[in-house]
């Protein structure tokens, strides 16, 4: 568990550093530790975020007498902001209840990745993009499952596919049908800051009655995102 002395060492901040000094030290430490940068490390990045959070708050007697595991879990959970792949793609607005009972309305820009830091007023959050059964996120890329008629998988053909960015007409080659995978370049998470433009991967499966139902559900979900 971090104490204030260790937190200052993590950020490279001197005792008595002002809030402005802490912000500068945090930005420099976060750049070096970010897992998307060469030499970065996810665990070190989390430690940098936790150190900044600890030093940004006044010392609390309550936090000293609490069991260390409880303090660490509470602080970690409170600063993680889970979002859906569609919010990571398009941005949007979420409501967040903080540990001290405040309700925050947070505006999300499009192009967020897991590990990104987002400030909402005086609060700093770490983004966690959580995939689901319909949309998966791998780094900068989005993955969805696309059921196709067996004839298209075997012989190839032109099909209309519902994607997070709208309906796309895609040419399925015989080789792609055999491989069960198609890449749509530049259709993944958008470029933002140091993050490059991602791609969209279609996992091709044979269409069944069950996949028809899943496809309709996914289409309704995408349609709601397109209309937002």
Automatic annotation (TrEMBL):
Extract the CDD domains matched here: DnaJ
State the source organism's domain of life. Bacteria
Keywords, comma-separated and alphabetical:
DNA-binding
Say if the entry is tagged with keyword DNA-binding: yes
**A molecular-function term among this protein's GO annotations:** DNA binding
Q: Which SMART domains match?
A: DnaJ
Q: Which InterPro entries match?
A: DnaJ_domain, HSP40/DnaJ_pept-bd, J_dom_sf
Domain J residue range list = 6-60
Q: Pfam families from the xrefs?
A: DnaJ
* The protein's name: Curved DNA-binding protein
Q: Which organism is it from?
A: Phenylobacterium haematophilum
């Amino acid at each position: 568990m971090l104490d204030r002395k260790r937190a200052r060492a993590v950020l490279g901040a001197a005792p008595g550093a002002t809030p402005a000094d802490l912000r500068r030290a945090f930005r420099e430490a976060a750049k070096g530790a970010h897992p998307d940068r060469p030499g970065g490390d996810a665990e070190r990045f989390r430690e940098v975020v936790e150190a900044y959070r600890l030093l940004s708050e006044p010392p609390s007697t309550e936090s000293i007498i609490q069991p260390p595991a409880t303090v660490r879990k509470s602080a970690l959970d409170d600063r993680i902001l889970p979002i859906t792949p569609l919010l990571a793609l398009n941005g949007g607005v979420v409501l967040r209840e903080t540990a001290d009972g405040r309700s925050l309305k947070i505006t999300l820009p499009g192009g967020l990745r897991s590990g990104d830091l987002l400030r909402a007023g005086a609060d700093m959050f770490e983004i966690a993009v959580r995939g689901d059964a319909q949309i998966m996120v791998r780094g900068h890329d989005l993955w969805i499952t696309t059921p196709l008629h067996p004839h298209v998988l075997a012989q190839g053909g032109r099909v209309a596919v519902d994607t997070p960015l709208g309906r796309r007409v895609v040419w399925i080659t015989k080789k792609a049908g055999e491989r069960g995978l198609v890449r749509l370049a530049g259709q993944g998470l958008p470029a933002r800051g140091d993050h490059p433009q991602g791609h969209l991967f279609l996992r091709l499966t044979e269409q069944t009655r069950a996949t028809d139902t899943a496809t309709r559900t996914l289409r309704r979900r995408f349609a709601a995102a397109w209309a937002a």
